[in-house]
Amino acid sequence: MSRLLVVLPNWYGETLFATPFLRALREHQRGAAIATLGWPQCREMLAHSPLVDEILDYDEQGAHRGPLGQARLAQALRQRRFDVAFVLRRSLSRSLLLALAGIPVRVGAANRKSGWLLTHPVQVPTAPQHKAWTYLPLLQALGVNAPSAGSYEYTVAEEERREARGWLEGQGLLDGQPIVVLHPGANWPHKRWAPQRFAQLADRLAEALRAHLVLSGGPADVPLVEQVHLDMRASATVSSSRTGLRQVAARMEQAHLVVSNDTGVMHVAAAMRRPVVALYGPTSPLLTGPLGDPARTVVLHHPDCCPQVPCFQPDRPPHPGMEAITVDEVYEAARKLLSAECGIRNAG
User: What's the count of helices (H) and strands (E) in the chain, helices before strands?
Assistant: First the structure.
């Protein structure tokens, strides 16, 4: 049996972007054992996934920090005797790690930075395209005709689903009215729509559409969620504080609509085929947009308002692209998606 290793990119969303590649790899190597190597905090994205057999951590800030930590990880990988490794990110440190681990076939994108450490550097198209599609050409190294597209995947376990429905029922949210999840957080400040606008949107959804509102966020998002809650007139249920990603995702699976900034949680909602209104400012939907059901996905983006997209200056909020998104246009997009999802009519 072949043993395959896939070295993942960073961040939650980018881990999901790798799932079309993992799906294609699984379908063409059905008898292989597939492992992934990535940031510890991102392993939640692939938990319970049928696409992988083992999830390994690359803890650059902890156990694998520095030359000694890298050597320990290389030795651990060597002991697993992988036959082939794919590195999805152009990275000198990751490519060197695979070489030190003695993995005989090392596949990645051809580039000056780290391509010399690969046994099979693959030419990847340079035209702008979604990040998920940039990984698929690497399959050519195994003689696989890679698909031109795909969708990403997230797996909710039945136990998680039962817990989520029990929580929602306990909050009185399973009474037939639409459930709308609002996620005001994002990893960078300039990717966040203003809390006051989330609050205004929430009030309109409650008043006009009688929607149940759930404010979602992780521990780092508590101040944002609290600000939105304070600025609202309507009541809302808060799902944040100690709530982990797996719980947030399972609860979100039951939603009729998710409104979110460009963040990993939004991509999870899209992966679960939830109706999504995605708010983009400093990032490009072409490169990192949601890969959900096109009929149930609306991306709001005003690139003409921005001096540069993508913009990697998180210390300079607010971003003009986020400021340009109005409450009216988000509400109208939400109303249309809820109309299609729940049969809501004539809500102005």
Answer: 13, 12
Whether the Cβ atoms of residue 85 and residue 98 lie closer than 8 Å to each other? yes
Residue 202: give its domain's CATH number: 3.40.50.2000
**Residue-wise pLDDT tens digits, 150-163:** 788 999 999 999 99
Regarding whether 270 and 314 lie in a shared domain, the answer is yes
Residue-level pLDDT at 296: 93
- Reported as type and span, the H/E element at residue 254 is none
The whole-number average pLDDT for the span 93-113 is: 93
Cβ-based neighbours of 21, under 8 Å, separated by 6 or more = 6, 86, 88, 132, 135, 136, 138, 139
For residues 173 and 273, state if they share a domain. Answer: yes
- Can you give the residue range of the structural domain that contains 288? 160-342
Residue 71 lies in a domain: yes
Assess if residue 154 is contained within a domain: no
- Is 296 part of any domain? yes
Residue type (1 letter), 244: G
What count of Cα atoms within 13 Å lies in the side-chain half-sphere of residue 206? 18
Residue 346 has pLDDT above 90, yes or no: no
Would you call the peptide bond into 314 cis, given omega within 30 degrees of 0 as the criterion? no
Q: Is 147 part of a structural domain of the chain?
A: no
- Cα 251 to Cα 93, 234, 333: the distances in Å are 37, 21, 22
- The packing angle between helices 92-100 and 66-80, to 10°, is 50
